[in-house]
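Translate sequence into structure tokens.
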Amino acid sequence: MLSRFKWMALAAAALWSAQAVADITVYSGQHKSGSEAVAQAFTKATGIKTTLRQGSSEQMAGQLVEEGERTPADVFWAEQITPMLSLSEIGLLAKLPSDVISATSGAGYESVPLAENGDWVATSGRARVVVYNPDLISKDELADSVLDYAKPEWEGKVGYVPTSGAFLEQVIGIAKLEGEDAALAWLEGLKKYQKSYAKNAVAMTAVERGAVPLALINNYYWYNMAREAGSLDNVKSRLDYIGHQDPGAMMTYAAIAVLEHSGNKDEAMQFVEFVVSQEGQQVFADLRAEYPLRSDVSSSFELYPYAKIEPPTISITTFDDKENALHLLEKAGLK
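Result follows.
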């Protein structure tokens, strides 16, 4: 099924003239550069034109709920899985073939979350990491757990971004792994002892410039900075992958789905198939420092090996999990 994209580019012109092919609309909360590149490659391979409507994943999910059966969208591509669960629960997502779902959860990727109802599929992964400045702190001095960075002995040494969706996911992970009391204590410690930043890129830049020894971010921010600098050797900071199933080693995932009320389901399904195919995954991995979820795809970035991340096993985040975490943030004075 997925291999057909290799010959589609050659056949697209003939197919286009032989029969009408519907255009599709994709509501996307995924990063614009990557989703645009994949959409362009898909159109080139199939002749199916794709309109991308960008926004936050939550914004797009809310719009889909409001539009219901009247939605002009055919596909939803979310930066996080949580919005998918909300749409799945109310029947707005269409079932996917089993080979599409298994495309990004094969050998070596068994930890990738799977849709309980078979109506969405993960497309890429992001790792929570510690970015640190070796001029200010050595790798050997770093903590063994992300929980330690909220303790008084680390006062003034850690940057964090409480408004980040990935940070919220980490709070949820800590609550699930260690309990809500531990998650609240961690948040209160960060607020009391550490430095809050408005954006992950700002926190990372502060580490790079030596304003703070380390910060809690997603891996791709650092790799994007290194690429802009020309190479890894042109940046001062480095990444620490905590590993050993610590909450600081969490992975988060993007996901995609065909909408139940799409008027162009065949074309929408082709798009989803393309996104999780070898070709589609490679296009995205060439531009974004997120982890592709296929063994036959290699990132153009020098990513830390997926097999060595050792993330904790955490159940998929639900809407209630998110609401509980937001309540903890509010209780800690961070919201």
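Note: Residues 6-19 have pLDDT under 50 and may be disordered.
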